[in-house]
C-alpha cells in the first residue's frame, strides 16, 4: 500500500477508534498519560507498518493489541524504578477487577472520570475533548479562545490531579449522578459542536464521527437518567441539529446557512424524534433548563416548511428566556440575529455592536455584523466585517461561504 493510502486508512481508524482505544487503555492501566501516549504511538506506528504490510484485516484489533504492548513496555521500563507490583497487574485480565454497572461503556466511564467535581469546569471540558474527542490542543484552545500553551498546561495539570487523587474510572452511583451530570452535558455539547462545525484548519468542515459519538453517549446518559430534563433537552437539540447535517455543506465545499438549506432533504426521522422529546418535556410543566430551551428553538426552526414560515417571535421569546439562564455574549449574539429577523436589521445591529468588547475575536460576531450591514446597504462596512470574519474563521466551509458573501456585498 502507498504511504498516502496508509495515512488515509489510519486517519479513518483514528476517527473511529481513538476514543474507544484511549478508554480501554485507561480502564486497564488506570493512567491517562499512559493511555494517551500509547494510543498516539500506536497510530504513528500504524502509518509506518500499514504502508509496508497493508491495512490489517481487523484494524481495531490491531490497534488495541499494539497499544496494550506499548503501554506495557512503558510501564515495565518505569517499574525498574518503582515497585514490581505493577508489572504483575499487566498480565491480569482487567475485566475481572471492577463491576461494570448498569451500562457497560468505557467511553462513558472515561467522560465521568474527566468530569469529576474535583476539577474546574473548563478543565473537565478541555480534558474530555482531548481524551474522548481526540481534538488537538490547538483545536481545544480555539474553542476556549485561549493560547495553545495555556490549554496544554491545563490538560497536563488535570491528568496529574486525576492520578494523584485517584479519581475513579467509573460511572457514578445513581445518587451521585445528578450533581455530576452538568459537566458531562457541557462536554458532550462541545464535542457535538466540534463535529457540527469543526474549528481545525486541517480537518473536514463537518466531523461526522464526533457528532455520532456525542449522540451515542447522550443516548446512554438518557438511559441512565431518563427523567433528567437537561439530558432530554441536549439529546433533542443534537437530533434536531444532526437532522440538517447532510445539507449543511454544498458539493463545492461551502457552508449552506439554515435559510438556504433544502428542507426536504432534512432527516425527518431525527426531526420527529427530537420534536417528541421536546413535547414530552413541555408536558411536564417544569421550568426548562438551557439545553431544553435550545432544543425548543431548534424545534421552531425545524417546524417551518420554509424559512419565511419561521415563527421569529417565538424564537426571540425563547432567547429572552435563555438569556436569563445563560447571560453569555454568544447567547446575546444569537438573540440579536433573531431580533433582526423580527424587528429589522438596524435593531439587530445595535444589539450586536454592543457586544464588540466581549466578542471582538470571535468570527461569528463579525459574520453576523457583516450580514446585517449588507442588508442595510452599508457595503464597504460589510466587506470589512466579512474580511475580519474570514481572518478569524478556521472552518474551510465557513470561510468559503463568507468569501462569497463578501464578494457579493
From TrEMBL:
Stated family: Belongs to the sigma-70 factor family. ECF subfamily.
Provenance organism: Prauserella marina
InterPro entries: DUF6596, RNA_pol_sigma70_r2, RNA_pol_sigma70_r4_t2, RNA_pol_sigma_r2, RNA_pol_sigma_r3/r4-like, TPR-like_helical_dom_sf, WH-like_DNA-bd_sf
Keywords: Sigma factor, Transcription, Transcription regulation
Alphabetized Gene3D superfamilies for the sequence: 1.10.1740.10, Winged helix-like DNA-binding domain superfamily/Winged helix DNA-binding domain (1.10.10.10)
GO biological process terms on file: DNA-templated transcription initiation
Annotated GO MF terms: DNA binding; sigma factor activity
Name of the featured protein: RNA polymerase sigma-70 factor, ECF subfamily
